[in-house]
Amino acid sequence: MKKFLLPAVALTALIVSGAPDNSNTAGTVNSAPAAKTEKASKKASVKAKKRKSVKVAKEITYLCSFDNTQQPALLLAAKSKEPRPLFVTLHTWSSDYRQCQNYAQRLQKLDVYMIAPNFRGKNTVGNKLSMGSDAAVSDILDAVKYMQKNYNIDPNRIYLIGGSGGGFMSLLTSSRSREIWAAVSSWCPISDLTAWHAYYDAMPKAKKSYGTHIEKNIGNPKTDAKAKAEAAHRSPVNTLEGAAYPLDISHGVFDRTVPVEHAIWAFNKVAAPKDRFSDAEIKAIKTIIKTKKTPAGFPEVSEKFGSAKIYVRRVSGNVRINIIHAGHSIMPGIGIQWLLKQQKGKPADFSDIKSKEKSSALGR
C-alpha cells in the first residue's frame, strides 16, 4: 500500500459559506478558550479560501433507487487498472456535493476512487428528503453501487468520511449498512437530532439557526410527537449499537456548533459497557473548555492529532474517540491517512499518524 503524507490544506474551501459558525452563545461551551480556538480555525479557513479552487473531480448523475431519479455527485477515478480503494466523501449540513472538490484535490495523488453524493443537498431549506431521510441514506448507498458497477473498486477498502452534517451522515449511513464499509472517519458529528434541536431551542430567537432547519424539515420534536419520532429515526444514537466496523470519531472540545457530547454519545453506543463514558466523566470533559487541561482521572495522551493536543482518547474494540483542542473543525488529511490503513474484516489499526496538519473550521 502506498503511503502518502497529505499536505495541510484547510478543508474550508469545501464550505460554501466560507465561515465557521461561531454565533452560538448558549451553554457551557461559550467561553474565551472556545472563541480563541475557533478564531484560529477561522484564520486557517481564510487562507484556504485564498487558494485557487481546482476542480479535479467531474460532475455526474446516477440513478437513485428511492424514487428513480437522477441525482448529482462528484466523481474522481483512479488511474490504475487493478482494484483500488473507494472514498465516499460527504458534504456538510448547509452545503452540497460540490463542496467535496477539496477532498478530490487530496485524493487524486493517491490513485484512488472518490464519489461525493449529494444525498438530497442542503438541510437548510425545508427539504424533507435531506437531513438523514431514508432517501438521503439510500442515495449514498446507491453511489457505492454505481461505483462498483462501473469501476474496479476494491471491495475490502470502501471508506466513508465526513464532518459536521457529513459526520452525522457518516454515522447514520454506516450503521444501517455495516457490511459495506472497511472503515468510517467521522468528525464533529451530530448524533441526536432531538438533543441538538433542544440545544438551539434554548437560545435567543436570532441564534436558533440549526434548530430552525430541523423544524423546517421534519417539524418541532419538542412539541410534535410525529416530528420527535422522525428525529429519533434519523439519529445515529438509535442505530449505532453493536456496530463493529473500524470507526474513528473526532471532536473539538471547544465546538459551539455541535457540542462534544454528540461524539461521546455515539462512542458509547458502539463501545463495550466497561469502556463507555459515565455522566461524571462527560461532566469532567466539559471542564476542559475552561481549564484547557486533561481532567483528573483521564490518562495523558502524549501523541498529537496533527498539531492539536488530544485531551481525551479512548479505544474500545474497533471504535476510538479523540477529543482534541479544536472547535467545529476537521483534519481531512489525517482522516484519509487513517482510513487508508484499514481493511475490511481486519481489526482497526489505531497506530499513530505523523502529521502536522492543523484543524480547519467547518462552517454552516
Describe what you observe in this structure.
The structure is a single chain. With 364 residues, the protein is of the alpha/beta class. It has a single domain (11-192, 235-361), classed as Rossmann fold. Helix content is 31%, strand content 19%. It contains eleven helices and twelve strands. Residues 1-32 have low confidence and may be disordered.
Largest sheet: 10 strands, mixed
Rg calculated over all Cα atoms? 19 Å
**CATH level-3 fold name:** Rossmann fold
Shape: globular
Count, helices:
11
The poorly predicted ranges are 1-32
Decide which structural class fits the backbone: alpha/beta
Instruction: Calculate the terminal CA-CA distance, rounded to whole Å.
Output: 36 Å
Please report the total strand number as a whole number.
12
Entry keywords:
alpha/beta; globular; ten-stranded mixed β-sheet; 11 helices; 364 residues; Rossmann fold; two-stranded antiparallel sheet; disordered N terminus
